[in-house]
Amino acid sequence: MKLFIKKNKIFSKLRRQKKDLFHKSIEWSDLNHPAVQKWIIIFFLSVLLCLIVSSRIPSYRQYVSGEIATLDVKAPQDFLVEDNPSTTAKRIKASDSVWAVYDFDLNAIAKIEQKIDLAFKTMSESFLDKDKKEIKEGATPREKFEQLLGINISESSFKILEKRNFNLNIPNYIYRILNNIFEQGIVSNREILMEEKNRGIVIRFFPNREETNIQEFSRFMDITQARSRVKKEARILLPSSERSLRKPVVEIAQGLLRPNLTFNKSETEEKKTTAREAVKSVLFEVKKGEIIIRAGEKVTPEHLLKLAKLRQLKTDRNSIGSTLGNFFIILLILSIGFGFSITEASKKSQMQNKDLFFAGIMLVLTTLMLQIGESLPEIKLLFLSDHSLFFAIPVATGAIVISVVLGIKQCMVFSVLISIFSIMVFDYKIECFIYPFIGSLVGAREAVYGNQRSTLLKAGLWVSAANIIVILCLKLKLGDFFNWEPLMGNLAMGFLSGILSGIIAAGLVPLIEVVFSYTTDIKL
Fold first, then answer.
1. Cα–Cα distance between 230 and 256 in angstroms, integer?
2. What whole-number percentage of the chain has pLDDT above 90?
3. Where would I find the H helices in 384-483?
4. What is the pLDDT of residues 128-141, one digit of tens each?
5. Which of 105, 222, 291, 516 could hold 260 in an S-S bridge, CB 3.0 to 4.6 Å?
6. How many CA atoms lie less than 13 Å away from 260 in the CB half-sphere?
7. 54-67 in b/e burial notation, b at 16+ Cβ within 10 A?
8. 453 in Cβ contact with 404 (< 8 Å)
9. Alpha carbon distances (Å) from 472 to 185, 475, 480, 489
């Protein structure tokens, strides 16, 4: 009875030791604990695999306009491309179509009339004062008059006005002359204005800010033309009896001419900006599978636009959200795949972690190989299709090596994991799971019982056969079975994949035996 109780205690202890580490009470602060080390390995494997899966290596070189393309580039999906030159041209056209804005100051003549009125009234009142002390104490009468008008006047003209005692009827002639001219509009530079003749201008009146469009510019004059107009107006308005007043009237009117039609640069630029922003981008659609550029073609600006958009699409896919999503998916997959697995090689936790580390390295290398294969440009030969490079990747190498070193059970987990990562790399296409999964299982099965290195080469041949069968089944499913030329190319790539898998595995196993201190049947 005591012996039976003792045996029960021993078996109970062994069962407790065989429980998964999830069910143990673990001090996670202890980094030497095997379970902690295992989850650290899984975490860093997830980070590394996430970086590989999420990365996008440019699959085509960057050309410049005028170069000759060396490879065909095909659109992987539908997308829209902004035609920058056309958009820019349309925006420039819209900007150029905006009419220049000119401000017309309606109060300009009123201000000048006030100035004339004040000057003549002041001088008239001063000359009525017999003592003239007010004028003589400061400046001379002529200087005083010039200060009030803000212009210079000749001595002869001043004497004429002085002789008339600055009669208050004289300003009426000046008013009428200036009013007629200011109503027409005076610009500082008529040549610049005439550049807008083919389109017209927008006149904004101040102070009411009303706007009107003008296309006839003959009425507008510059300062030189306005000065000539003053002389004509003076000859018409002044009667022959007042001919002596023509000189001072013309001189004062010419001196008071100011542009009242001025170009409003800020308002014009604002309207041009609004017009440019209102123009929508010119887009053209590129359909999935469309040849963007063919080998031998001269690269044009349109080709460069499409290639730039392809680079942008590859960059956009690597957003933070997408990368985080990939990380958590991979972490979940590895947790399920590796978290509950127990290596057959040994029951010791340290060996389990070594096995996990080794399997993780093989997983990273195989995934990296898949990513490089996805990123390589398509080889456009007569007997190759778009998927030929995928079929050529020796993805079964990892499964063969895992099978020899760790056993068939761990290899099955590895095969499932690498097949999942394959569809993540190749945009979740189901054939990208089936092809590496079947090839890996076949290669692992043929290699697991081998005790010679030639067995690995034979396993590679079996993988080639499995690849050929899978490719035929996929082509039959996709309805592309009778397209013989690409079919033969794909079969050749599948056969090459198996041969390469066996050769690479035969070279890796001795290296792994030395680096990780494994003793395989082949080594024995």
1. 11
2. 18
3. 388-392, 396-405, 408-425, 431-448, 453-477
4. 664 444 444 556 88
5. 105
6. 24
7. bebeebbeebeeee
8. no
9. 86, 5, 9, 12
Alpha-carbon distance of 406 to 518, in angstroms, equals 9
- Give the model's confidence band at 518: pLDDT under 50 very low, under 70 low, under 90 confident, else very high: confident
Question: Which amino acid does the sequence have at 52?
Answer: I
Mean pLDDT along residues 311-324: 65
Q: Is 283 helix (H, G, I), strand (E, B) or coil?
A: strand
Cβ(381)–Cβ(425) below 8 Å: no
pLDDT in tens, 194-232: 888 888 899 998 888 888 998 888 889 999 999 999 999
Write down the mean pLDDT value for the chain.
79
Judge whether 448 and 485 are in contact, CB under 8 Å: no
> The tokens of 343 are what?
């290596």
- CA–CA gap between residue 206 and residue 106 (Å, rounded): 6
Write the DSSP string, 459-481: HHHHHHHHHHHHHHHHHHHTT-T
Calculate the alpha carbon distances from 54 to 50, 78, 450, 456 in Å: 6, 21, 37, 32
- As a whole number of angstroms, the distance between CA 69 and CA 245 comes to 84
Phi and psi dihedrals of 347, rounded to 5? -90, -5
DSSP for residue 76: S
Judged on CB neighbours under 10 Å (0-12, 13-18, 19+), 49 is buried
pLDDT score at 23: 44
**Band (255; pLDDT cuts 50, 70, 90):** very high
The tokens for 459 are: 């396993």
Radius of gyration over alpha carbons of the chain, in Å?
A: 47
Pairing of strands 201-206, 100-105: parallel
Tokens of 186: 């005076």
Q: At what angle do helices 246-255 and 155-163 cross, to 10 degrees?
A: 120
Q: Residue 44: is its pLDDT beyond 80? A: yes
